[in-house]
Queue: 2 jobs
Job 1
Amino acid sequence: MDRRRFVKVCTGSAALASANWGRMAVASDFEAFPAAKLTDRSGAPFKGTTIPTSEALVFSYPLAGVPCFLINLGDRPTKPNIALKNEEGDYRWQGGVGPKGQFVAFVAICTHQMSYPQPKVSYLRYAASGSELAGGPGRIVCCAHGSVYDPADGAKVVIGPAPMPLMPVRLVYDPGTDELSADGIMGMAYIKRFFTTYKADLIARFGPGGYRQAVGEKTVCIPISQYSGLVPTC
Amino acid sequence: MEENNSRRHFMKTGGALFAAGAAGLAGAARSTMANAAPAVATHTMAALPKAKGPRLVVVGGGTSGLTIAKYAKKEYPKFDVVLVEKRDMYSSCFSSNLWYAGLINLEFLADHSFLDAAVNNNYIYFNATVTGLDRTSRTLSTNEGDIQYDFLVLAPGISYDYDKIGVTDVDAMTALRQIYPGGFISPTEHVTIHRKVKEFEGGVFVQTVPSGNYRCLPGPYERACLLASTFKKNKIKGKVLVLDANPEITIKKDGFHAAFNELYRDYIEWLPSKAVTGVDVDRKIIKTEFDEYKFDDAAIYANVRGSTLIEHLGLMAPSSKSNQKEAHIDTRFYNIIGDPHVYVTGDSRPHPYSKSANTSNTEGHFIAKVLAARAQGKEISWVSPRTICYSMVNAHPMEAISVDAGYDYSTEKDIITGFSKDTKTFENRDAAKGEATLEWARGIYRDMFNA
């Protein structure tokens, strides 16, 4: 995929405030990718009203090898426009989308030591009703070393050793059709490191270079209980 | 000339022992070491590229050294980092118990390359054994030549202290080390214990637990569980006899007692306050203060001390600071007292921290920041290491318990006073923690070996 043909946009307010945004060193930006409609296995667009609140759905975006969580927070409100920081700099997370702002998405790779959902097992999950490690309901928990993130708060770290929030994925909600698309992501440098770290596994699963292919206009969302054979309830 | 003479003398005495196997060699610091002065430079420089920035030499490619080599470079890219490691093949001590029960294979422990770690993280892996140190000229001597440093980190791990279990005769000690290894230092010990478990046909398998601050506090109990789980599954008519020098299980006691009582009533006999006072290797008898125990096979975990390398290099703390021959370092920043250029980290530290992988990994992240700051003339505040540690108490099915501990520092006393308030234990064994145990280890491998 030719990445250069995609326009780099900035949604972070700090970045927007700067005339010289192309060289921003202190702000982390969303990077725009072609929008991908979130669908079910049959390829039909997922209707927002049918997205469960009990677990995360897993989809690939913007590249086949990048796992993301789509989470329906239900009645739990998100905190919009909060200030967060990752390894690339400061950014603002705009909150969820949807009728109640209940839909959020993040790259499902633990920022501590890169645990992520795989077909065999996922050590990272959205614990809707809480868990031993979560310290409260509605959090994302990593079994490996107990990192806990709050998806209503931009996936900010609430407990454990993770050094930064999960990387955000930008969603677009169409109220007319009740459908969702993804059209941006933050943290491509981190994802590049993820690809290097798991290169052999990713080649085994997607074929040489397959994990680096763009997902295209549609990306399938699969409940994590079906996506991974085993999801430990840490 | 004089230096060369001293050097030759050293090589004939203490140096030879280190060349034979360094940090892991129990008892290596005995009489020969007592006379060996901290060695001098050979004037043969190691074949290394010229340093392109402040040279940081890290000795020891275990959890502590690998973490520091990687993260010091990340924190301060000007560092020219050289990792000196005597092994040419990595294999972790952490998670090795899981192999005995067939839950992982040897690749899980060993399929991690020193070369890749160095390339991925922009440092040099130098396969050599340390033979001496001259702190005045800031020269580290190795069997492959001398290396000049601006900062030196020594992370050589532990050695066994057989004296403390009453085995002072060098013949008995050698036999014990070879026939009944503790399995808490070198990969070759793990291979031997793995064979023993597969070959065990019944009877008594003794696992001893030493006193003091030994490596991996729950390790011997976890091993007892995993051996028992294996014997139970394979219907072996045998038991694991745990001779524990301590009056109570040292960590996660409720979780271990529950496993002993509920899963292994017929397979584990745990005897507290049974410090080993001697071993008759030929007759297969272990002696404690009042009793003798006959065994069919055993893993005899002697007491633990700071690596003999620390003693050899003259960096040992006085006995008032450490009764385990650990290093004489600053409590918070790990430099040798009075020398801001030399640091001792990982399990040779005198701290009461649990000597575990997660402790060394998190400590390493902090020390990398200390080194980066000091290379730039700055200081940072102390941060506690973290001990996140899983113990697999059942192999069929996999179930584990865990602890997540931090530590408190007292400014007045300049000591670590104990566990911090946010320390938690998770002692109800379950399958989720069983699975997490595997990913815990994989995460640490990724953190040390990948970019």
Note: Chain A has a mean pLDDT of 90.
Job 2
Amino acid sequence: MNGTASGAAGAGAGASNAPIAALGGVAGSQRPASLLRRVLLQGKYEALAMLRNGEQLILAVVLPLLALVGLTVTPFLDGMGGSRIDVAVPGILALCAMSTAFTGQGIATGFDRRYGVLRFLSTTPLGRGGLIAGKALSVLAVLCLQVAVVSAVAFALGWRPEAAGWLPGLLLLALGAAAFTALGLLVAGTVRPEATLAITNLLWILLGALGGIVIPAERLPAGPQSVVHFLPSGALGESLREAFLGGTLNGAAALILLLWTVIAGAAAIRWFKWN
Amino acid sequence: MLRVVSEVSLVAERGQVTALLGANGAGKTTTLECAQGLQKRSGGTISLLGQDPASAGAELRSRVGVMLQDGGLPPSSRPIPLLRHIAGLYETPWPVDDLIRRLAIDSFSRTTVRRLSGGQKQRLALAAALIGRPEVLFLDEPSAGLDPQSRQLVFDLIGELRDAGMGIILTTHLMDDAQRLADYVYIIDGGRNVAEGTVQELLQRNPGVEAGAEHIRTLEFEAAPGLDFDGVLPAGIAVSEARAGSYSVTGSLTPAHLAALARWWEAHNIMPASMSLQARSLEDVFLDISGKDIR
């Protein structure tokens, strides 16, 4: 196709509209906004869409807060080397990462795929890479808000984290969010949106209860106990508890999260269907 | 490997509306999506503004506007924030307020996309495709779901854009749309283009239709049922009664034929209740070329 346009001749105008030529005609030298601006805009747009969605808010904020309160008034976490709240909060932060990056983002992406939103946006200057980067950015932005809200409530309930644990804790949270984002995209890009909805919600419940994310592996039945360390949920929950309770970085857990990110990311790149 | 499109070759020029016509499943959308870089092709070459769309970057995408058949707009978004967001992806976008006015989007600006009517969604999707002031515009079934007023609005804008130098490539299975809008037409059937030309050229010459077909007219009129037209018109002019009292006269009609018919009506004191004369249309050409079987 050789449809190159020159700076145009004047066009007929409607009664109330300026001629298209008066608006600069059909651009002959259109350029995309900078990559940074495109990704930031998409990240902002997706984050706001996520925060305006009532169901997403329940998943992202309300349920983690309910779990936090539940764990502080029940004896599940007693005898874990810290107060109930100190043991509970790292797991709740990990749950937040899974809620937003895996379940929320996966469902949103699945339905975006169904409605052709991904295809349309990939024809704009944003492109497929910018779209994925925007989604990852929106996950990080929402996760920051979740951390702020959960931390504020937790401080009010008496949370006293190890100061040295913040840096490794936040790094691990970002790594966990990357792993769950990759997994969410893999599910959303390979099955129907209804199946994505079912799979991500079911896994949220299963991993939340038995995946070592809020309940430490030692308190789980023997079956799941042997595998949770290798799951992203278990690796993130365990390493965050070590960070905020003892101020240490669990290198093995970080490596497991990195592996999940790379493997799920590569699989998503290979099998993601945009149509 | 399923081969949906195999022998399609087309050129779309700037300042023209190029239409891809075809029945459902003919390969129009696949052709368009390959040209937009949305689908990978297994062979052949495509040049969009001198570049291969399959490996295009943001620079090329900023010069091309795409309106998908299914819209591709987020269902939970509202029109104006969505358009402002898309506008932000370009360095010098079309002023959003101007597009809103031109496509009468302000009347439903507070409604989410999922609650818009089919025609409103189409207008919004067109605005989203135009927001980057593209040099090339792809429209997949642009008039689907449009009411007559919206259709007029959209067609007028497409005409303006063409006059302003935009290259517009659209698919449709509505022959009226193509006849009204297109400067050049490709008819696609079974994944290959089987005919091409301007509307006038297609009406005048196409393979499989006998010489002189361009002069064929159909006169339809309503009168009393069961009239006997034996000997009124010469051989080669077919008269049929499709249903009681509804007659169709088809052939290379001349003023003499019309006069003979009128004289016969006068002699038998027949006054038709209604009457229309139609030239051969693009739809007739299309049906001649691609057949009348349901796909």
Note: The longest strand of chain B covers residues 167-172.
